[in-house]
Design goal:
557 residues, alpha+beta, Anthranilate synthase, 2 domains, 28 strands, disordered N terminus, transit peptide, ADC_synthase, isochorismate synthase activity, plastid, Chorismate_C
């Protein structure tokens, strides 16, 4: 039995209404919480609308597709009008007969108002796969790289997408060949055609069942996409075909039409101030006892005279089950509220849980040949007053153990950049980045790639950084594999997007895997160096996990 998604209007003057629906799950029924001001709608766990997509990994890597095109149509005042017009434009594609055996075309309709991409995504039925990516404020970053357009009005803030025009997913390690398969669909002349997704922390590790749909890497070019700019918005549809991938123009148009017919023409503002939600149970892997043992063993390895290991990052997975089954997109919206100086993301393949996060850590941002990276390490809570906050900051800057942990990260990233870049500059060399609940030591590194083909090299070289793995990389990764009792999946892996002229990746920390009917797996890690204390490192895990759970007002029952 299935119940369709529907939106029911409400004229209630009392403000936000809370909508509950029942999710089918083995042996239990948990209410789903989806909150919108003045309206509610049902979500049913058994209803997953999805259309087939082109398998981009099957492509010949010899060169770009034969045609790439962005068609921009006159701007409209509302989302509803944009949706209806876009449906009509997609329907007209059926009558086209391209002369090319491969290509990608984007149809885009500007909307003459600023609408949040996360609100649009929350307003959609459960269309999978889906993605969301929100960049950090350029003002906060002091980022010297230009935006997609030199006009600040066209600075892309957030992107939401449903359905996949092209999907790239395999269980082997992400390779240069896989990167080439993605890049052949991207070009400078179509800057908003992008592939969004992520890569596992360790492709050598066995994939656990909850991470199976993500493979070793998962990227998609959305079929229907909502782009949020600083002053306006764009609704777009993308069609891609390639006979070499056994995916014809007719296949592509039919799939796109199926998806866009299910897209809601309305949107609502997501309620970001939720009532307190009780945590019915929480389960740590590892337990505190095993954690203490693991940290002491790691310190013994670091202290061995014949060991090169100077730092290792050990992580914890916490299974939380809540009194209501929280919608992952609503959770991301709550994270976005307090994460203006962080990246928010959601990656959800078909028939899969949602990987969400609110990460402060950039892996790299490329614009042309220019590249920016960051070193982020060492952690303190924020102070309860300005004076206390300043004292904590000064302690963070002067503490020898924190300086060692941070220096290992910064210098390792600098060496990796120097291998593929000219004139690497570190500025600031050491400062403090403040987040709403937490603060870290921070440095920014800038360089210039020698060729555009070095983009794959910089991705594969930078990941994993010492901030999420340790140093030296192989020794740290081996110790992690021997010690940790769970699959990190994409936690601490690269999450972001590839574009023709621009690409950006964050590090998938402060993250959770949200599973319908099963609660969420929330991840956190901490750097272990000489002088680390197991109990203090456990406290740091608690502090970091609060960055994810407190946004939803999750409290132990």
């Amino acid at each position: 039995m299935s119940i369709p998604n529907k939106a029911i209007s409400s004229t209630s003057p009392t403000g936000p209404c809370v909508g509950f629906a029942q999710h089918l799950s083995p042996g239990r029924r948990i209410p789903t919480l989806v909150i919108f001001p003045g309206r509610w709608r049902r979500r049913w766990g058994g209803v997953v609308c999805q259309s087939p997509a082109m398998d981009g990994c099957r492509a010949d890597h010899g060169g770009a597709v034969e045609t790439m095109e962005t068609r921009t149509f006159p701007a409209v005042p509302t989302v509803g009008l944009a949706t209806e017009n876009l449906r009509g434009l997609v329907a007209k594609l059926k009558s086209e007969k391209p002369a090319f055996s491969s290509g990608i075309i984007r149809l885009q309709l500007p909307i003459q108002r600023h609408i949040k991409a996360i609100d649009w995504l929350c307003s959609q039925p459960l269309l999978l796969p889906r993605i969301f990516f929100s960049g950090r404020s350029r003002a906060i970053d002091s980022d010297p790289l230009p935006a997609v357009s030199s006009n600040a009005h066209h600075r892309l803030a957030s992107v939401a997408g449903v359905g996949s025009a092209v999907v790239f997913c395999r269980h082997h390690q992400f390779s240069n060949s896989d990167w080439a398969s993605i890049k052949r669909l991207l070009s400078k002349k179509c800057p908003l055609i992008r592939a969004y997704g992520g890569i596992r922390f360790d492709s050598r590790a066995n994939i656990s069942p909850e991470w199976e749909p993500f493979g070793s890497f998962y990227f998609m070019v959305p079929q229907v996409e909502f782009d949020e700019f600083e002053d306006d918005s764009i609704l777009a549809a993308t069609v891609a075909w390639d006979h070499a991938c056994s995916w014809t123009w007719e296949n592509a148009v039919e799939s796109l039409q199926s998806t866009i017919e299910q897209v809601s023409s309305d949107y609502v503002n997501v309620q970001r101030d939720l009532p307190q939600i009780s945590i019915l149970s929480h389960n740590h892997v590892p337990t505190k006892t095993f954690w203490d043992h693991a940290i002491n063993r790691a310190l013994q390895v670091i202290d061995q005279c014949d060991s090169d290991l100077t730092k290792v990052v050990l992580a914890r997975s916490t299974r939380i089950v809540t009194s209501v089954d929280v919608d992952p997109i609503t959770w991301v919206a709550c994270l976005q509220k307090e994460g203006k100086n962080s990246y928010q993301f959601c990656v959800q393949p078909s028939n899969a849980p949602a990987f969400i996060g609110n990460t402060p850590e950039r892996l790299f941002h490329r614009e042309g040949l220019s590249i920016i990276c960051e070193a982020l390490a060492a952690t303190r809570a924020r102070g309860r007053s300005a004076i206390e906050d300043l004292k904590i900051e000064q302690d963070l800057l002067s503490n020898p153990k924190d300086d060692l942990e941070f220096s290992i990260v910064r210098e390792a990233i600098k060496r990796k950049l120097e291998a593929v870049c000219d004139a690497v500059v570190v500025e600031p060399h050491k400062s403090v980045r403040k987040l709403p609940r937490i603060q870290h030591l921070y440095a920014q590194l800038a360089g210039r790639l020698r060729t555009k083909d070095d983009e794959f090299e910089i991705l594969s070289t930078l990941h994993p950084t010492p901030a999420v793995c340790g140093f030296p990389t192989e020794e740290a990764r081996d110790l992690i594999a021997e010690t940790e009792l769970f699959d990190r999946g994409m936690y601490a892996g690269p999450v972001g997007w590839f574009g023709g002229e621009e690409s950006e990746f964050a590090v998938g920390i402060r993250s959770a895997l949200v599973e319908t009917g099963l609660g969420a797996l929330v991840y956190a890690g901490t750097g272990i160096v000489k002088g680390s204390n197991p109990s203090l490192e456990w406290d740091e895990l608690e502090l970091k996990i609060s960055q994810v759970t407190r946004s939803l007002k999750l409290e132990l029952a």
